[in-house]
Amino acid sequence: MKLVFSSIKNGTIFEPDFQNLTPDVGTIEFKHMNTPGGIAVVYAPNGTGKSSFAKVLEKETANDLSFVATDDIGATITFNAFHIIQDQINRNVIPGKETDYLIGQQIRREYELRNRINSAFDTVYKKLPGKYKSDFKVSKVEDYLLTQIGTLQNLPYPTAFKYMRCIINIHSHGTNIDQAEFLSFIRNDNNRPNLTELDTDKKTWVIADCSGKSKIVKRIIGLDCNKIVANQGTAQIERHDDAIGILEKYHSLDSCIVCDNHDFNGDDLLTRKKENRKRIYDGLDQNTKELLDKVIKDSSLVSSDPFDIKRIVSEFVSGGEAIELHELQSNLKMYVHAIGDEMINVLFHCFDDTSLFQDYDEYTKLVSTQPQLDSEELLFIEDVINENIGKDITIERDPDSKNYKLKLGDKDLLGIDRSSMELSSGEQNFISLAFELLLARHSNKEYVVLDDPISSFDSVYKNKIAFCIIKFLDKKKQIVLTHNTDLIRLLNVQLSNCFNLYILNNVENGRNGFIPVNAQEKAMLINLHELVKFFQNKCKQLAPAIRNRRQFLMAMIPFMRGYAHVSLDLDDDYGTLSDIMHGYGSGKVDVVPIYKKLFGYDFGGTEKISVDDILNIDCTALDILDGTKFPLLSDTLKQTLIYYHLRMKVEKVLVDAFRIDAHDMDTLNQIIQRAFRRELDNDERNRNLRVFFTSRKTLLNEFNHFEGNMNIFQPAIDITQAALQKEIGDIKNKLVEVQTFANGTQWQIAK
Predict the structure, then answer these.
(1) Using the 8-state DSSP alphabet, how is residue 30 labeled?
(2) Which one, of 682, 681, 655, lies nearest residue 670 by Cα?
(3) Alpha-carbon span 122 to 174, nearest angstrom
(4) How far apart (Å, rounded) are the C-alpha atoms in residues 381 and 442?
(5) Which pairs with CB-CB distance under 8 Å and at least 24 residues apart come from 683-690?
(6) Backbone angles phi, psi at 567, to 5 degrees
(7) Are 661 and 678 in contact (CB under 8 A)?
(8) CA 671 to CA 662: how far, in whole Å?
(9) What 8-state DSSP symbol labels residue 546?
(10) Residue (of 710, 677, 748) closest to 567 by Cα position
(11) Rounded to whole angstroms, how far apart are CA atoms 385 and 295?
(12) 564 pLDDT above the threshold of 60
């Protein structure tokens, strides 16, 4: 239940420390409940590197994107172990296929069988062309042995020819064959051809001839004996050919090579033989000439002639009877058809080494029944998703493909553009993420990484998403990356103490890595009463942890003001603290007795704090709380005090520079609008300054009141130290610009 990272790299995003992580800052341990899975929440402000960390886990490369990690037993973890879930707001479609989301026992078995059937067919379609080529020398649809099967009209030849032609075709290789029809054909014993026992030499010769250049078999079978004019001269031609062959080799000798006759002129004799042959040949009809040239004289018959073709054809064209030639034709036809039967018989045995027939019968039975989901799957889809989008997701079977279809209303759900769903953006985001969680649930990956899963959701859906995370992914090990403490609370509401909490720290010269949040601080983050109990010092841990009492009480002023507002505030501590929460104020308040009334803990003595004290704090020299024991609360108090200081500073400068009567103004926004009036927008500086400060009023003002939202942690720590320091610099530079602008002639005249 642990991941131990020793190195994480994503370009220059992570500090160098991440390339040499020690176990105390490199370990993520999953909180184990009563299921195989577990949850680890990794909190980090925006800009820290959460999404960059998710990208590292999603795809590991050798250079700028990599990680090294092991599990509990030291086994190496690769990126293939992680299923990554990103923000849904920019997702256009719900990806995947129905089986990625539906895992009922029946559906699982059905798709398992379908995949096995398809795999078996694919294997056969790849194997059969090779077998026809090796055993029968048939590799093209126009090869003679195959075309002869196509000439036969009685069953099963036309159907078998159609299948074989499609399988042998280099472009289709069986893909156009209807599986059900094919299986019905080869499982019907009435379609099986009757095999004939053939002479091996003759069969081999026929196959070789039909695939070779000679095509003697084709010529003889196609021969019309009635069109052949017998001529005894054909025998003389063969004798002349033999003589010419000898003379061409020995015509230059002084004596005859045959009879040793010295009265011998080889050249004259060769010429006479050729002239005689030509005379005889020219006297033959065209059909006889073709038989002579392309059958009798074919060189292949010299090496092998198991059917005695040369003799039979020679005797026929020399004037012999046609009986023996007719017998030859019949014999060759029989061999061609018998070989064709053997080719067809291959179809009937192509699945002999598989369980295809049993698989297909079981699959056919399943697809004839109504699809059934496991009760848990029905819960997820019907009770969770349907209930929350107000439109039913149904499961139907496609009448053509027999595959399942997920429907939203009357439309397909998967792979369609979200805008056509007729749902609100929130509903679209919800259904997209819910199905992403189902996809992760059914994936074969051990770890699921969720990158800010509720960042694009309003408050209505945040709790629903937390429920889905807990319920859908209970069998997975989850890393939840978030900058939103609302999600941390919501997960705990769904299932108490269901996760371990870490802070992702990634700052220069900091303690970088995954910093564990102890149980007490985690409880304070989740439950307001645990935070108040800490401020009450009931466990005797507050006082020892405070590094600077004055800074601590300053940082607590905004929270105390909000806490007083929701408490029984008989002494109007809310109003008293408000006097030192406006930059134009001049009040001074002893906050020690107020703290004691609110939380019951007495710091002793006095701690009088004025507006000027807040205005003059040094934001670079804050050391409020022990950060090693309470890292989250320490950063929260620092940043709260910085926000408090900045708000007061902006308010003070604007009120003084523009001589605003601010005592009837409750918010910083009112002061900004009074300082940079819209009627002066013909001055571009006026407009730019108003936009600048208005865009930061939430940062400067609303976060520091905690009225109606007692979450001290959020969004006080929802910013990196580097980003906060930049904001401080930008705001202070703008305040200098304000002084110059306020003294300008145009503003004074307009005022």
Answers:
(1) P
(2) 655
(3) 8
(4) 14
(5) 683/746, 683/747, 685/737, 685/741, 686/741, 686/747, 689/734, 689/737, 689/738, 689/741
(6) -105, 175
(7) no
(8) 7
(9) B
(10) 710
(11) 79
(12) yes
HEC assignment per residue over 624-644? CECCCCCHHHHHHHHHHHHHH
Tokens coding 751: 């005022």
- Environment class of residue 143 by beta-carbon count within 10 Å: exposed (0-12), middle (13-18) or buried (19+)? middle
CA 102 to CA 581: how far, in whole Å? 57
* Nearest partner of 247 among 238, 258, 233, judged by Cα: 258
What is the Cα–Cα distance from 301 to 699, expressed in whole angstroms?
99
Say how far apart CA 406 and CA 423 lie, in whole Å. Answer: 16
DSSP string, 699-731: HHTGGGT-SS---TTTTTTSS-HHHHHHHHHHH
Angle, helices 631-657/519-526, rounded to nearest 10 degrees: 50
Q: Looking at the chain, how many residues does it have?
A: 751
Mean pLDDT within 221-228: 83
The Cα-based distances of 745 to 685, 687, 691, 737, 750 in angstroms read 13, 17, 21, 15, 9
Q: pLDDT tens, 450-502?
A: 988 877 677 777 888 888 888 888 889 999 998 888 888 888 888 888 899 99
Contact 562, 617 (CB under 8 A): no
Helices then strands (H, E): number in the chain? 33, 16
Contacts of 159 (CB under 8 A, 6+ apart): 185, 191
**Residue 702: predicted pLDDT:** 47
The whole-angstrom separation of Cα 497 and Cα 500 is: 8
Would you say 240 and 276 are in contact if contact means Cβ atoms under 8 Å apart?
A: yes
Phi, psi of 474 (to 5 degrees): -65, -15
Structure tokens at 232: 């005894």
In the numeric block, the tokens 């996760």 are attached to 499
Neighbouring C-alpha atoms within 13 Å toward the C-beta of 551:
24
Can you read off the two tokens belonging to residue 721? 């130290």
Residue 369 DSSP label: S
Residue with the larger pLDDT of the pair 568 and 476: 476
Residue 425 confidence (pLDDT) above 90: no
Nearest of 606, 625, 603 to residue 555 by alpha carbon: 625
